[in-house]
Amino acid sequence: MPLKRTTLWLIAFVLLMAVTYISLPQLLSMLISARLADAGYSNNQLHIASLNLSRARIDTAQLRSDDGALQISMQGLSVDYSLTGLLTGHIRRIELAGLSLAIKPASAPAQGVSISAPAAMLALIPAEELRVDRIHIDFPPDQPLRQITGQLDYGHGTLKAPLVLDNGREQFHLQAEMKQDGSLRIALEQPGQEAVAEIASIRGIVSDQQGKLHFAGTLHADYALLWPLAGSWLPGDKVGGQLDAELKLAWPELLPSNGLALFSSLAGEVRVSTRLTAEQWGSAKQVDLNGTLRLTVADGPCEWRVARGLKLAAQWPDTSGSPSLSLPAGLHGSVVRDENRLLLTLPPQQTLRLGKLQFSGLKLPDTEINVDQPLQLSYATASGWQPESVDLSVAKQILQWNDLRITHQGGSLRLDSGRKWQLRMSGVTLAAAAVAVRAADLDLYLSYEQGVASSRFALVSQDGLLQLSGRAKQQLQTGSGSLTWSVPEVAFGESHRLSRWLKMRPDIDLDGGALSLSGSSDWRRSGTAYSFNHHIDAVLQSLSGNVGESRFSGLSTHLQLAGGERLSNRSPATITLTLLDNGVAIRNLTLKLGLELPLSGRKPVVHVDNASAELLGGKVAGSGITLDFNRRKNPFNLSVTHLDIEQILALERQQGLYGSGLLDGTIPMIFTPDGMTVVQGHLSARAPGGVIRYVANDTAQALAKSNSKMDMVLGIFHDFHYDQMNVTTDYAANGQLMMQVHLAGRNPAYAAGRAVAFNLSLEENVLQLLKSLRVDSNVSKKIDKRMQQRLKR
Questions:
Q1: CB-based contacts of 376, cutoff 8 Å, min separation 6
Q2: What is the pLDDT of residue 256?
Q3: Can you tell me the distance from the alpha carbon of 165 to that of 173, in angstroms, rounded to the nearest whole number?
Q4: In this structure, what DSSP letter does residue 259 have?
Q5: How far apart are CA 86 and CA 29, in angstroms?
Q6: C-alpha closest to that of 128 among 82, 76, 181, 73
């Protein structure tokens, strides 16, 4: 019996061993397939070529991830195991001659992406040791990486993967190492002829704590080597500098697939120090970024603080120097998730600093920008960064724009609830060589909707005298736009002078009458060229004031100008002027005026017709006059009639000299850049002539007693009745007047009324004469004014 029972046990054991041996391929296949299914590869095919009690060889294995994003092909797979290990689910060693992976685009899973700690990830490897001699990974064409090749080696709880990354232009080395204790080291390197240069590296410890993964470590990157990897994602040429970061982060094992939700799931602290330089960044020629920033994330919100100052400096074309934006140490804010966007907030009562800037003739000094209300910017995937709330201000500044000096007492920039920008500057003054605009307040409103940028503006003098307002629109897609502006009627008076708001050289002031202005412009774009059309409407009503030392009154006209590259009036404007007194009164001036005002390049052209004015008791007229400021000389003629000799002689203020008669003639004028000249002007006395009387004073009579010729001249001109007077005049731009006077007549009481003729040469500086006349006139007016004030007492 015992022998028979032993024999039966031996036969059963042999049968069991045979069944086990025969079933080994199926058992091994089931074991590996189960492990792969646990890893997300339930769709797999294995072909075992050979099998014994300690090793199996699989010629090929095809795996496809459950989401279809990854296909894996393995060649030359060898599996070393023990029989008892198989029964407990352990494999001693796996070797792969080749591993190929093809990555295809796939939508992110709605439930997110599962990330495990290194210990958990390494536990998925179904062997104590793993060796892959050749790895080949292909990526979709739209990805920055084309392929990855390399090796993989796992043993004694450590996974090492030396890989080569190929982006189609160049290759990089990636050294990755992961251990079961959670330590992680990843280094991206650039191979060189002599040595390998490290582009970026991350080192630290990953641990699993209470259902979350924690990482504590460092990040280092070399910008010069890292930048080429970004391709077209990031601009910049000849980039240099370093990035260093201390990382303490925590995240859930199941990462959300949505980027905003992923941000909210992070927690921890990051301290980033950057030193970045670039010779070309977009349109900027030179960019420098230096500073340290600390980020703290907890339950979604991210608090940030500038640790040791952060400064961004850049150069742009047409700028000099490197304008900079400085974020001082201690500046802080937050980033939170708001529905489907990120919201960056900068609390109020903080200051940003903008360095000196010179651009296209505009010079801005160092500027402190005050954050008066929370500054908020939002970010969404579809729209990018958008301002949500802006309320900034700056203190008093002095700016320079070419020859224009701009001063303001303070400015602010706001974004209201209707998403309209408001720029306000108070106490704005403008000063240039020939003009100065006194304190005014500027308000500018900007908005953008459906591809159209709109604005409205108002410039109001602080005394309320003048107001300039307007609107503008710009179609950003087509490049077309329009502008309208107006200055409502301004009434001038003694207490509302133009000089209170506007100072010009030569001095121009208005103290009476009214003025109104309006205009419009529109433009179209064709390719890179623009075409413009402008219109200006000016109404002057009985204006009075001063131009330099000259007084005028009753200036009226309605001037309309239109055009594109050149403004002109389609019909001549009628100009009337009651009085112009520059020492000699010109009254009741009227003329027809045509203007051609080129907006670039050439100088203006003025056309004058039907001009007439009253002067010295007579009349001066001219027509067909063209003053082309592009020419060196502009000749024209003025006709003179009925000039009163008595008023002419009164200009000399010679005591005892009197005269009568009327002069007619023609004055050939030449207008030059240096001034007005006259060559060979002719005046003749109107028949029957007139009288010139000179009553000599005691000094002249005493001289005449010793000079017979002088005695004769004084005797004749004591009562000279002339019947001929011809005057030839020449006048220079410096005011020097030369006159040749021919007189013929008689003195009835001298030499029996014998006829005599005189040829006189006279010289006078008209500008000096007019100046002395103005001085005398001003003194006389001041005396009259004081006498009237005393009489009123």
A1: 343, 344, 345, 346, 387, 388, 389, 390
A2: 66
A3: 6
A4: H
A5: 11
A6: 82
Total-model pTM: 0.66
Task: With beta carbons less than 8 A apart as the criterion, state whether 263 and 205 touch.
Answer: no
> Other CB atoms closer than 10 Å to residue 620's CB: what's the count?
18
Pairing of strands 375-380, 384-394: antiparallel
pLDDT in tens, 176-225: 898 888 898 999 888 876 677 888 999 999 888 877 888 899 999 988 88
Give residue 312's pLDDT: 82
Query: What is residue 18's predicted lDDT score, i.e. its pLDDT?
Result: 42
Taking the C-alpha atoms of residue 442 and residue 407, their distance in angstroms, rounded to an integer, is 12
Looking at residue 776, its pLDDT comes to 44
State the SS3 of 638-665.
EEEEEEEHHHHHHCCCCCCEEECCEEEE
Pick left, alpha or beta for residue 642 (phi over 0 → left; psi -120 to 50 → alpha; otherwise beta): left
Cis omega before residue 144 (within 30°)? no
* Structural tokens at position 780: 């006389």
CA distance 648 to 646: 5
**Both tokens assigned to 300:** 């979604």
SS3 of 677, please? strand
The partner residues of 545 in beta bridges, in order of sequence, read 510, 552
Map residue 116 onto helix, strand or coil. coil
Per-residue pLDDT, 322: 67
Alpha-carbon separation of residue 324 from 58, 232, 241, 310, 348 (angstroms) = 64, 25, 18, 10, 21
Tokens, residue 569: 């009036």
What per-residue confidence (pLDDT) applies to 783? 36
Helix (H/G/I), strand (E/B), else coil: 464: coil
| Strand runs labelled E in 253-323 | 254-255, 267-278, 286-297, 302-315, 319-320
Q: What is the mean pLDDT of each run of 10 residues along the chain (793 residues)?
A: 46 43 52 61 68 76 73 82 72 84 64 65 77 86 82 88 84 88 88 78 88 88 78 66 89 67 76 85 75 83 85 71 79 82 89 80 85 90 82 91 87 85 89 81 88 90 86 90 94 87 80 94 88 94 89 94 91 93 88 91 92 93 93 93 88 79 92 88 91 79 71 80 91 83 89 85 70 46 42 43
pLDDT score, position 372: 94
Residue 134 has φ and ψ, to the nearest 5°, of -145, 120
Instruction: Look at residue 106 in the predicted model and tell me its pLDDT.
Output: 56
The predicted pLDDT at position 547 comes to: 85
Give the pLDDT of residue 320.
Answer: 64
Give the span between the Cα atoms of 302 and 138, in whole angstroms.
37
Q: How many whole angstroms separate alpha carbon 610 and alpha carbon 599?
A: 27
pLDDT of residue 436: 82
Can you tell me which residue has the tokens 């591809």? 451
The CB density around residue 52, as the number of other CB atoms within 10 Å, is: 9
| Angle, alpha carbons 555-558-563 (nearest 5°) | 130
Q: What are the residues whose beta carbons fall under 8 Å from the beta carbon of 257, sequence distance 6 or more? A: 108, 109, 110, 111, 112, 113
C-alpha to C-alpha distance for 717 and 448, rounded to whole angstroms: 84
- Whether the CB-CB separation of 620 and 608 falls below 8 Å is answered with no
194 DSSP assignment: S
**DSSP 8-state assignment for residue 493:** B
Q: Which amino acid is at 724?
A: Q
> What is the Cα–Cα distance from 547 to 672, expressed in whole angstroms?
21
| Measured distance CA(665)–CA(147) in Å, rounded | 99
Long-range contacts of 396-405 (CB under 8 A, 24+ apart): 397/364, 397/365, 397/367, 398/365, 399/362, 399/363, 399/364, 399/365, 400/362, 400/363, 401/361, 401/362, 401/363, 402/361, 402/362, 403/432, 403/433, 404/430, 404/431, 404/432, 405/430, 405/431, 405/432
Residues 6 or more apart whose Cβ sits within 8 Å of residue 501: 437, 438, 440, 461, 463, 465, 466
